[in-house]
Specification:
Blueprint: H1 18-37, H2 44-50, H3 55-61, H4 70-87, H5 93-104, H6 116-120, H7 124-149, H8 156-174, H9 183-196
Helix pairs in contact: 1-4, 4-5, 4-7, 5-9, 7-8, 8-9
């Protein structure tokens, strides 16, 4: 998954504050470190040094050690939702979601981001934080579905679709049998999951 530490908020007209950019930069550095080493069992002092922070600054940005992954995850989900929204201007929503997911998982990238859920899953606190951030991210995709289908944001279909899209991403990544899954395999599994979601990503013309 390619990342830009200067990523914007859900409303791209509102740039991140200086503090938010610093938190995202530090978060990205630590998550990259986790992906490279494929483990999370490091003391805070080592993570802080890797992120270019003092230990005191680390705790100011991230009150709990596991909070360090949150800005990266939030920004990644935001980027995926914004990319899919842009693509849906000329593609069906299901295709826009697949294309967005595929673009984020670049086969030629130096790091294989598909290993991240497995790496974070080694530690109960990191896994819980990952799952909580994903659940909170469902609203981004629910809003996308509601907008594309011209449905009220609080109606059941967009909310269910938002949860299902995030579940499809998780299943695609966690479905690999090996420790270092191929990017193409992850994308193929996501496309398969999205295909199963077709009824949620369209409006019944008979209604």
């Amino acid at each position: 998954m390619t990342m830009d530490a200067s990523a914007s908020t859900p409303n791209s007209s509102q740039p991140l504050s200086v503090l938010e950019r610093r938190r995202l930069r530090a978060s990205t550095a630590v998550v990259e470190f986790f992906v490279r080493t494929q483990q999370t069992h490091f003391p805070v002092a080592e993570l802080a040094a890797h992120a270019g922070l003092s230990e005191r600054s680390f705790y100011r940005y991230f009150p709990r050690k596991e909070d360090v992954i949150v800005p990266f995850l939030q920004s990644s989900l935001r980027d995926l939702a914004e990319s899919a929204a842009a693509l849906s201007a000329h593609l069906p929503l299901s295709e826009a979601l697949i294309e967005s997911f595929s673009s984020a998982h670049d086969e030629s990238a130096e790091l294989n981001w598909s290993v991240l859920p497995r790496v974070l899953g080694q530690n109960a606190d990191f896994r819980a934080t990952l799952l909580q951030t994903v659940v909170e991210g469902e609203a981004l995709f629910a809003s996308l579905v509601a907008r594309e289908l011209r449905l009220p944001g609080a109606s059941p279909q967009p909310r269910l679709a938002g949860a299902a899209i995030l579940s499809a991403m998780r299943i695609a990544v966690e479905g690999a049998a090996d420790a270092n899954p191929s990017v193409s395999g992850v994308v193929e599994r996501f496309a398969l999951q999205v295909g199963l979601l077709s009824p949620l990503l369209s409006v019944d013309e008979g209604e």
